[in-house]
Amino acid sequence: MRSLLMILVGAAVFVSHAGANEKGEVSQPSQFTFAWPLGDGPAKPRGATTRGVPVQPDAAPSAEWKSLRTAEKLSAFERDRRAILAMAGPYRVSFDFLEVVRFDPAAKPDVPYQSWGTEFVFVAEDHGDFIALQHILVMRVLQTDGKSSEPIVMRHWRQEWRHEPERMLAYEGGNTWALQALAPDRRRGAWTQTVLQVDDSARYAAAGRWQHADGSSTWISDETRRPLPRREFSVRKDYDVLEGTNRHTIVPNGWVQEENNLKLALDGNRKPRIELPYLAREYGVARYERIRDYDFAPGRRYFERTEPFWTEVRAAWARVVEKQGRYTLKSQVDQGSLFMPFFEYAARLDDGAAFDREEARAFIERILRERYLANG
User: Fold this and answer.
1) What is the mean pLDDT of residues 204-229?
2) Running DSSP on this structure, what letter comes out for residue 108?
3) Is the pLDDT of residue 42 over 80?
4) What is the dihedral of CA 166, 168, 172, 174, to 10 degrees?
5) Burial letters for 48-85: b for 16+ Cβ neighbours within 10 Å, e otherwise?
6) pTM of the predicted model, to two decimals?
7) Euclidean distance between CA atoms 333 and 345, whole angstroms
8) Given this model, what pLDDT does residue 360 score?
């Protein structure tokens, strides 16, 4: 199981989950239908390469949704908080990305991307004006004999929400992140969402405000830069950053994340290049659909046993940011497999090894210095 986990972590492979009808019969994964014009021919999506066990959707509105929609008088701040907390829980997740505009008609269209997974979103921290949600994948693969594999647990992304912060850590391009001050009018009533990668290094941050209507609650971000995800840098070398917006919408049985991204090529100064800086625009949709009767216990065990270690990792990153204000990585985190020593350390804790805080701190500082930081 451990060797398979390391393969999945290194390859960032997600599981394609079959559905089940009322009779319990397994259906084939849905066909990708939102594609390029008819004249371009069919575009078979890349992404998921394995099949997961059938799961049962939970159509009942969650307790978190009911709390968010309560008729009692709530402050805007408290309603925002409840919307964020409503993203926690057990999910089947689908990821779909497609280029919808090509600014260079001669360019070859990018192949659509589609993958699936099952994950639990834990409330890792809740301090009123700060909420952290940790995503943990727990996947069971259908084997050639039709039986389910042992659970495969993988630490996924983390999202941290702060109310009206004075600054945020923004991505500039070129594997460089820097603290960015937020003007008072941009902060007022806003929440920043900071997305952390699997090793708790920063990925991107954006400010935005929640909007609450009768049937949904939606957070819409400002435009922000983010590094290329694995689905892109593994196949594309012609642009440098994604520049776009995020939209999170909370619905009774889960939530949906929508991305509207421009593919931007930069010059040596991390500025848009002069000729044809934008190559294409892509849309992305991640649907988090609540499920029931799925055993996420291995993910909870991993979270509880390893969180003390990951807390120290985040503290080390915070010291780097406070000391330098800006830092550059030697290579992109998952592209250079920088995270593997951290994952291997956490795996030992998951297997039952005792946690030694001082040893962990020394290990983390050494790995950041030797493998991650280009500027010390």
Assistant:
1) 93
2) P
3) no
4) 140
5) bebbbbbbeebeeebebbebbbeeeebeeeebbbbbbb
6) 0.89
7) 17
8) 98
